[in-house]
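Design review, sub-item: ligand-bound model
Attendees: FS, YL, KQ
YL presented the inputs for the pyridoxal-5'-phosphate complex:
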Amino acid sequence: MTRTGRTLRARAPAFSYRESKKGLFRRSTGSILCCEDVPLSHLAERFDTPLYVYSATAIRERMRIFEHAFRKVPHTVCFSVKANSNLGILRLLAQVGCGFDIVSGGELQRVLRVDRHAAKQVVFSGVGKTAEEMTAALKAGIMLFNVESESELWVLAESAARLKQTAKIALRVNPDVRAETHPYISTGLHQHKFGIPISASRRIYAQASGIRSLKVAGVSVHIGSQITNVKPFGEAMLRVAELVRELRADGHRIDFVDAGGGLGIVYDQGNLPDFEGYVADYAEAVLRPLRGLKVHLLLEPGRSILGPAGALLTRVLYKKTNGTKKFLVVDAAMNDLLRPSLYNAYHEIAKVEWKDGSSLSETVDVVGPICETGDFFARARELPRSEEGDLLAILDAGAYGMALASNYNSRPRPAEALVDGNSAKVIRRRETMADLLRNEL
Ligand SMILES: *Cc1c(COP(=O)(O)O)cnc(C)c1O
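KQ shared the predicted structure:
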């Protein structure tokens, strides 16, 4: 247990082992994985499995660390809603003063549902915004549109003109910076669909400034996701800073620099950096090139705020052996948490309950019930020995977990619970078959 135990301490306050005391004399009989003060086994009993569990304290703490790292410059942290769009999570973030980065009209509606006045801290990103989505965002009065193509600029200009408004815009420029991450979530190279080549951007800024319904207000970048080396962020900002100077020389008023999101987390066990120092390094990389520029900085973290604050709780349905391979078939599947199947992503898996003296381990594949070989959470993983009925927690599932869940194999999506200290509440009910069939004729 030492290895897993040590690693999990680094995830406190979200998830950590506590002594479990049972029996007449309440002597320690083992340890139990808790979310804050609530044993995960209690949550499984109350809310059933599979279940997403989030720690409110961890989310607030990670936001506080982000805010603190950038305290010396005017800035707004705009949580990337696509990482986790649950209303309960968004409400929690709004309460600590967070703004939001949205990529669809649906996400705008979620944000407005949480706080009618949140729009003034909303930035709208995405390569395929429709005129309807733009109109809704203009009516709501959002802070900034991150425009990703010339054509989009004209559609936005028309939408704004129709409403007799001016849309504040930044161009999302593509700095052609290589970020070492999974190819599906790297976005900052010229061959990617995102943004406008930085070399072409000056010309488009000039065009935009000639349109009455648009107001040039900033420069935006987002180079990808799950980037754990802070250097590429600094390189991107260097190019952005250079562009800001050129644009100002061209006569534009540049109030905002949007540094995007993308700061990665460490999914592997061991070697978890201290988040405070890591975010400080990130802030240093981003801020150094901007020194002296006098801009309002926007940040769009998603994963780094929510990832380690959430876990997917699942129960072992069956143990089976095929030849030399051992499998744990659990009640969660790729439809609930897609990251291992989609990106071959590693997620640490922790056994929820330990009995004193049990130290046996075994090498297993942890798989779901879906009819796909790609439906797995771990392959050839050494885990403490588990039996049918045991609970497992798949860690670091707070971002791009539930957000990517589907109904594949006609599986209703899991419930979500938010823990705060010793209290826990459902923030999304478990889907039912009636929910799934509602729209079918
Ligand atoms: C996905 C996305 C983010 C958030 O990325 P994380 O890796 O979760 O921090 C921020 N900005 C934009 C434009 C995005 O597409």
